[in-house]
Each structure stands twice: as C-alpha cells, then as structure tokens.
Amino acid sequence: MTFSYVNSQTSIIGGKRTIRKVVIRNGKGYKSLCTYKNGKKCHNKKKHLGKVEIKMIKMGNFIPNLFSDIKTRKNKY
Question: Could you tell me the residue range of the domain that residue 40 belongs to?
C-alpha cells in the first residue's frame, strides 16, 4: 500500500495571506509556500521533501522549521 498525505495551513496577517502546503504521493513529495497580497498571487516556491522528512511525517512526528529553508523575496507592495 502506498502512502499519500496532503496538508495545508493558511494564515492571514495584515491583508497578506500565506499558504503552506505539504503533499506526499507514492513515496515522493514536496512542500510549497505561496503568498497572496490583495487577492493576487505574489510568490509561489516549491521544494522537494527529503527521505528523512517523509519518514518523520509518515510516523506522525512534528518537524520544527519545516518551511524555513524556502526563501521568498521581499515585496515592495
């Protein structure tokens, strides 16, 4: 049986919406960080998950700072 997992978290701070998403299908997965400003998509960054991260998610462990390595540039708007 293959392992599949989908989870997303939405936070809104000062009119800026940030969506953090983790998707795992068939043993491969990615994490994405997407930001919206005034209803328009500003940035969307994706990065593959490592084997250790997938294993920890499969066991149900919390991974602190999972999205800290995804960098987004600062907006001028």
Answer: 5-59
| Strand duo 5-13 + 40-48: pairing | unpaired
What's the pLDDT score for residue 71? 75
Q: Could you give the angle at the alpha carbon of 22 between the alpha carbons of 3 and 48, nearest 5°?
A: 90
pTM attached to this predicted model: 0.82
Own/partner pairs for 18-23, CB < 8 Å, 24+ apart?
20/67, 22/49, 22/57, 22/66
Structure tokens at 44: 């969307």
How many structural domains compose the chain?
Answer: 1
How many angstroms separate the CA atoms of 37 and 53, rounded? 30
Q: How far is CA 38 from the centre of its chain?
A: 21
Tokens linked to 17: 């919406």
Domain CATH for 46? 2.20.25
